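Input sequence (229 aa), recorded before submission:
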Amino acid sequence: MADLLTIENLGNLLMLCFLQAVLGFDNLLYISIESQRAPVAQQKAVRYWGIIIAVALRVILLFVMIELIDALAEPFFVFDWEGVLTGGVNFASCVFIIGGIFIIYTAVKEIGHMLTIEHLDTDMSDKPGKSAARVVMMIVMMNLIFSFDSVLSALAITDVFIVLATAIILSGLAMLLLADGVTRFLEKNRMYEVLGLFILLIVGVVLLGEAGQAAAHAVHDEALALRFF
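Predicted structure, token format:
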């Protein structure tokens, strides 16, 4: 705890809280949209448990990445097509590729569904729902994908675990406070949900671009392989 109370670490904590707020917007957006797929009576609990579990896993992910960051940056497959393409596949590039493709697929599927609806405000309730457990699982999985990006960005600021963990917990509390309000807003303004899905689509494309950066750094500059944000 003493490490947290130094001027340097308090300054880093403020920077990290701001960073988490910026990077966490798309995460909160996904939680609000996905939780509406659960049974109405369980939606609030789904958001609550999804965020709680995801924050706990994010802290564990942070600890693992601090301990294994050099190993995670090491490429396990290198391709060198002279004059065409050079790079390496490491843990970061795999996460970004899988996460980017999954987010793009989810956003395109939901946008496609909305384009078939004549009246968004009245017909969205006709969409088949999902079980609460499945929605919680989806929220946790997507949160981990978004977490990888934000944790790497945070590690570029500091590697003090207590500072990083505090910022993650504070961002989780902020999501708990804001999730219900964002969900109510989207329920009353369905067109903004469509806009939110397009934002998620862009995030998926950006993640694929970051996969390319990670692949290039894995070969040309391993020091930046996990720290290029």
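Checked by second reader. The helical segments are 7-23, 25-35, 43-73, 91-115, 120-123, 132-155, 161-188, 190-220.
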